Amino acid sequence: MDLTRQFDISDDGGEHDHYVQIHCELRYECEPALDVLESFNSWFFHDANEGLGEWLVAMEGHLEPLLARVPSEIDVYEEPV
User: Fold this and answer.
1) Across the strands, what pairs with 80?
2) For the chain, which terminus, N or C, has the lower number of CB atoms within 10 Å?
3) CA nearest to 65, candidates 34, 31, 32, 27
4) Is the pTM of this model over 0.85?
5) Phi, psi of 59 (to 5 degrees)
6) Helices (DSSP H) in the chain: which residue ranges?
């Protein structure tokens, strides 16, 4: 699972310069019970119609097979966009 947060980087004048994404990859051992997760993307935007609480409930429901497991590896890195 790759949790990503995107940041807007501004120049000295306060204008947009570029974006940076910080990734936190959580890797789990392969288990048949995790096959139901498949591949998906979901983004939350503060100006979207859906509230943060609703989005979090949806993500918790989708990721439920991972909630009782501990990742076998964790990798955190920065990616310029």
Assistant:
1) 20
2) C
3) 34
4) no
5) -65, -40
6) 52-62
The Cβ-side half-sphere exposure at 36, using a 13 Å CA radius, reads 7
Q: What angle do CA 70, 75, 81 make, to 5 degrees?
A: 135
Structure tokens at 41: 């993307």
pLDDT tens for the 81 residues of the chain, in order: 999 999 999 999 999 999 999 999 999 999 898 888 888 888 888 777 778 898 899 888 888 899 889 999 999 999 988
DSSP 38: -
Report d(CA 15, CA 9) in Å as an integer: 8
Q: Could you tell me which of 69, 73, 81 has the C-alpha nearest to residue 26?
A: 73
